[in-house]
Amino acid sequence: MPSHMADVMIAVMPFAGHVAPLAAVAKAFLEDGHAVRVYTGSAYRDRFDATGADVVTWSRAPDFDEYDLPATFPTLRGRKGPMQALANVEHVFIRTAAAQGDDLLAAYQERPWDLIVADALSLGARFASEHTVTPWVTVSVVPLAIPTPELPPPGFAIRPAGGPLGHARDRLLHAILPIATRRLREAYDAQRAASRLGPSPQPFEHAFHSPELVCATGIPELEWPRSGWPVAVEFVGSLTPTGVVDAASPPWWDDVPADRPIVHVTQGTLNVHPDDLIRPAFTALGRQPVSIVAATGRAETPGLPFPSPPNAFVTGLIDYARLLPRTTAMITNGGWGGVLAALSHGVPLIVAGGDFDKPEIAARVAWAGAGIDLRTGTPKPRAILRAWRRLSSDPGYRERAEHLGRELRRHDGPREVVEHAMRLLDDRRSGSAR
């Protein structure tokens, strides 16, 4: 057991796309000899129990079903697009923060931790860290959204621009951002008050990341160029480079022709309506000389409500360790974990980013030269077909994806999170500044 053994609390928002990477982090801390607890929703108790961590489930915080958010948050019912994204941030991530913090403080009183490592969207971890004055590390499982004046504000999916007009545009966007996010700011201030905390020591734009250390999934080549970061940022590559783990091979896996290229289509694990992307992809590629492997994103609902073309194979979830080495292209809604998994295997992408961080991810993939941004979450079959033909005929996309894959594979993400976090803790214990 290491001499620097620590008691670590890991806070994870209970969404599939957040759980997989943080489960890898929990396992890495345990393998390094640390005591680990995980705070998350009850739906994922078994997932973290399997790592050997002690699990603390949401109690005061509403223990919601990620696949039926309106059942717990009725104001989300019927919302789509940007309005849904803003409402989700307000009600799911911000307005649960004080209750999350209370759950975490109860766990701390039972057994104090030395360090809290949190999914960057777990605001309760920030509150608990402020109350306990313990080090807080954020692990960003989505692209970094740390604002700097030299770039457009995060979330607009706008490429950086040069010249006077471009800088004027960015200044205007930064000026209107406080107006656009007023409700979020008000909700955040109310949650701080409910958690018995004073005014925030940082502006609202910095609420979701630690001022001491951010471990960012991805690599600098997938970030907009900038002169520096206002906080300590360490890129750790992909935390789950093969995507879904321990998913059994579907019964048809051995029937996928070995002499045909595979195009993987995934709707992700949130907003998984198959009409958005899977149906138009089937229409676009159903007559092309490829095998389409489609994942619905739900293990319990592996089928589709419409017919599949003869060259399509459908499952709920699939192990990327088996699939991606045989895949020539991925058509995706832009989930960050899936994008990083594809790039880790050198697979170029066609991205249909509709809401949340997905348009931003699509823009970054296109800017990096590793894929095509369809600029919508509900593309027409013709747009998908054109993008696939372009991707297939231009080797530059695969070459760029393979380059990014080599950079991602240089990292051992979970191990690096442990190393960076323990360095911060050691600095705190010794009284030195990072």
Q: What's the total count of β strands?
A: 13
* CATH C-level name of the largest domain: Alpha Beta
Globally, the shape reads globular
Biggest sheet character: 7 strands, parallel
At a glance:
The chain has helices spanning 16-31, 45-49, 69-72, 81-94, 97-110, 123-132, 163-180, 182-194, 278-285, 320-323, 336-344, 358-367, 381-393, 395-409, 413-430; strands at 7-11, 35-40, 54-57, 115-119, 136-140, 214-216, 233-235, 262-266, 291-295, 312-315, 327-332, 349-351, 371-373.
Structure, described:
- Residues 309-422 form the Erythromycin biosynthesis protein CIII-like C-terminal domain.
- With 434 residues, this protein is of the alpha/beta class.
- It has two domains: 7-237 and 412-430, 3-Layer(aba) Sandwich (Rossmann fold); 253-409, Glycogen Phosphorylase B (Rossmann fold).
- It has helices at residues 16-31, 45-49, 69-72, 81-94, 97-110, 123-132, 163-180, 182-194, 278-285, 320-323, 336-344, 358-367, 381-393, 395-409, 413-430; strands spanning 7-11, 35-40, 54-57, 115-119, 136-140, 214-216, 233-235, 262-266, 291-295, 312-315, 327-332, 349-351, 371-373.
- The strands form two sheets. It has a seven-stranded parallel beta sheet with strand order 3-2-1-4-5-6-7, sandwiched between helices.
- Helix 2 (45-49) links the parallel strand 2 (35-40) and strand 3 (54-57).
- Helix 1 (16-31) packs across helix 15 (413-430).
Please name the defining characteristics of this protein.
single chain; alpha/beta; 13 strands; 13% strand; Rossmann fold; 2 domains; 6-stranded parallel sheet; 434 residues; 7-stranded parallel sheet
